[in-house]
Amino acid sequence: MPDIIQLLPDHVANQIAAGEVVQRPASVVKELLENAIDAKSTSITLVVKDAGKTLIQVTDNGTGMSPSDALLSFERHATSKIKIAEDLFKLNTKGFRGEALASIAAIAHVSLKTKLHDQQIGTKINVEGNKVVGQEQAVVPEGTTIAVKNLFFNIPARRNFLKSNPVETRHIIDEFHRVALAHPDIAFTMTHNDDLVFNLPLSNVRQRIVNIFGSKTNEKLVPVAETTDILKIDGFVLKPDFAKKSRGQQFFFVNDRFIKSPYLNHAVNAAFEGLIKPSLHPGYFLFLEVDPKSIDINIHPTKTEIKFDDEHALYAMVRATIKHSLGQFSIAPVLDFNRESSLDTPYDYSNKPPVTPTIDVDKDFNPFSATPKQKNIDFPYKRDKSSAHWDSLYVGLNDTQATDGSYSPETHLSFESEQVTGSLFQEQGPVSAQLTFQLQNKYIISPIKSGMMVIHQHLAHQRILYEELLKNITVHQGVSQQLLFPLELPFSIPDMEVLQKIQEQLEYTGFVFGAFGEDTLSITGIPAALLEDQACMVLEQLIQDIIDEVPDAGFSQNDLLVRSMAKSMAIKTGVALNSKEREHLVNQLFMCKEPSVSPSNQAVIITLDANDFDKKFI
Q1: Is there a contact between 48 and 70 (Cβ–Cβ < 8 Å)?
Q2: Distance CA 567, CA 570 (A)
Q3: What ranges in 108-164 are assigned the alpha helix state H?
C-alpha cells in the first residue's frame, strides 16, 4: 500500500491557519490594531472601505521595522515577543504567535510601508497570496502603514459566507471599541467609505467611554475600584436603571486585553441581583490586572478566552467589589434609609449636652376615689357652660309623632320602592358561560365543537401586530399618536447611524421623529399600539436585531423591522387578560391571513380533540 501522508504545501497551510485567525474583516482589523499598539504607537488611524472587503488600512506612528524585519514579518511563526516556551506565561503584549500577517497575506493583497525613527529611507513590500511580488526602498512616514485589499480574493467560498456590509461594519466597529477602550492613552481615528466615524483623542477611561458611546453615558457610570494581592479592579458599571435586554455594553479586559468570560459575567449579574429584572443584562467596563503567570491566554486562536489560576477567588472579588460600589454610591438599597432633612438636629442644638426631663408626679392620686385629686393639670380649652345640657337638643326625636308640629323624621320621611317597569330587551334565559379561559397567564383556551383550542397569547399578538405593521409600512399609512412632551432618547453613534438608515420605514409604522442629534434622538409621535415607556425598548431591540443580521434592502428589510417591532410590542407571557381582552385577541387573530403561525414560524394554535380526553379516562 503506498504512503498516503504527505506534508502540506506552505500556501495551503497558510490558508488553513488563516481560517482560524481571519474569520471576517473584523479579525484583520483586530490583528492590525494590536500590532500597532505593540509598536508603542501614540496615534493610530483605521481606514475601511466596503466593510473591509475592499480595503482595511492601519497607520501608526510606532517604532517601525527594518527592511529585514519587514520581510520576515510575513513568515509563519516569526515573532519578536517570545523566544522560549516560558515566555508564554509572562506576556505583556497583544500578538505573540507570529501568524497574523502570514495568515492575512495568504488570502489578500497586502502592502506594507514602514520606517524606523532613526532612518531616512523606509521599506515598501507588496504581498499577494503569501508571495512577495515587490520589495523596494521608499520615502515613507515614520511608523508603519499596512493596507489589506481584496480580502479572500483566492478563496471565493469564504467570501460568499460574509454577511452584508452593515453587519460586517458593525463587527469592525465592535473590534475598534474593544481596542480603543483598553488604550485611552492612544489617539484613535476611524473612517469608513471616506466618512469619519470616530475621532478619539488622548483621554482617561471615563472620557474614552463617553467619546465612544455618547455624552449621555457619563451620568450612567458608577466607578468600581479595588486592589488586592492577587487582583486589581478598575472601571465602571452602568446604573441598574440602564440595564438592557441585549449584552451590548459589556466589556471585560484582563491586562488590557479584551476577553469573554461567562464565569465572570455571572459574577457581575450576581452583584446586580435584586436590582434588575432577570431578563435584563447590566452594562460594565471592567479592567482587571493580574499576574501574567496566573493566566493562560494561548487557549483560543482569537485570544479572547483566558484560563485563570484561581477563578473562584476572582469571582468573589468581582462580585463583592461591584456590590460595594453600588452601595457606596447609593445605587443599591442600604440600611441607612433616606431621612427627611426637617428631622435633623438644628445646628444650635447639635453640640449642646442633653438635659434630663423632669416629671411632676402626684403621689396622692387615687384612681378609685370618688373625687380624684390631680395637681398641675391645666386644660387650655375650657368647657363652655352654655353647652352643658347638650342632650336636651335631642328630646322628642324618638317619638313617633311630634306634638308641637315640629319636624319628626318618622312622620315626614317616606321611601318609594323601585318598581320594574319592563325591560327594553326580551330576556333569553340565563347568561351563557364565558367563551374563553386563560391558563397560567400564557394560554387562551376556547371551547370548540370537536374539543378545545389552545392559543399562545404572546405569539398570537405577534401575528396580529406583524400583519398590521407590515400593512402600514407597505401602503405608507401608519397610525401615530402624538406625544404631549417629546421623548429624548440617548443612543450611541453607531446606533444613531442604524436608526437614520431605517428612519423612513419607522415613520411608516407610526413613529414621528424630531431632531437627530449626534447621540440623542427626539421622538414626537409613536405608533398607536405602542406605549410611551416602551418606545426606547422597542428601538433598542430593533437596533440589536438589525446588527445581528440585516438583509440587503427592499421588502425583506421591512419584514425584519416589522418582526422585531411586533416581538417587542406584543403582550408578554404572564399578563392577565379579562374576558373582553381575550375574546378581542382571538377575534383579531382569526382576521389575520395566517393565524396559525407566528412571524418566526412558530405554532400559535393547537387543537385538542375530545376523543383524546376520552382515551385518558379509559
Answers
A1: no
A2: 6
A3: 156-160
Length of the chain counted residue by residue: 618
DSSP assigned state of 276: B
354-381 tens-digit pLDDT: 777 777 777 777 777 766 555 554 444 4
Report, as an integer, the average pLDDT of 586-599.
89
Query: What is the spatial distance between Cα 24 and Cα 129, in angstroms, rounded to a whole number?
Result: 17
Residues 6+ away with beta carbon under 8 Å from 240:
272, 275, 276, 282, 326, 331
User: How many beta carbons lie within 10 A of that of residue 144, not counting itself?
Assistant: 27
Q: Which residues of 207-238 are buried (b: 16+ CB within 10 A; e: fewer)?
A: ebbbbbbbebbeebbbebeeeeeebebbbbbb
What value, to the nearest 5°, has the Cα angle with vertex 578 and ends 572 and 580? 110
Nearest to 326 by CA among 226, 211, 209, 217: 226
The DSSP annotation for 408-468 comes to -HHHH---PPPP----SS---SSPPPPS-EEETTTEEEEEETTEEEEEEHHHHHHHHHHHH
DSSP code of residue 306? -
Cβ-proximal residues to 407 (8 Å cutoff; 6+ apart), any chain: none
Grid coordinates representing 597?
403561525
Res. 396: pLDDT tops 80: no
Give Cβ neighbours of residue 597 (< 8 Å, ≥ 6 apart): 463, 603, 604
Sign of CA dihedral 68, 69, 73, 77: positive
Q: Whole-angstrom Cα distance, residue 577 to residue 285?
A: 41
Of 66, 40, 29, 53, nearest to 146 by C-alpha is 29
DSSP 497-547: HHHHHTHHHHHHHT-EEEEE-SSEEEEEEEETTS-GGGHHHHHHHHHHHHH
Question: Is the distance from CB of 280 to CB of 243 less than 8 angstroms?
Answer: yes
Region 332-344: mean pLDDT is 56
Domains and their CATH numbers in the chain = 10-200 (3.30.565.10), 212-328 (3.30.230.10), 443-606 (3.30.1370.100)
Which residues neighbour 378 within 8 Å (Cβ) at sequence distance 6 or greater?
none
Among 122-136, 219-233, 479-493, which is the least confidently predicted range?
479-493
Distance CA 74, CA 67 (A): 12
CB–CB of 284/265 below 8 Å?
A: no
Do residues 252 and 263 lie in contact, with contact meaning Cβ atoms separated by under 8 Å? no
Whole-number Å distance between alpha carbons of 234 and 118: 38
Cβ partners under 8 Å of residue 80, min gap 6: 69
Sign (positive or negative) of CA dihedral 133, 135, 141, 143: positive
Cell (9 digits) for 10? 506552505
SS3 111: strand
* Pairing assessment for the beta strands 451-456 and 480-490 based on DSSP bridges: unpaired
- Which has more pLDDT, 181 or 103? 181
Residue 550, pLDDT score: 47
Cα distances (Å, whole numbers) of residue 166 to 53, 84, 174, 379: 12, 42, 12, 84
Q: Which of 31-40, 81-90, 514-523 is most confident?
A: 31-40
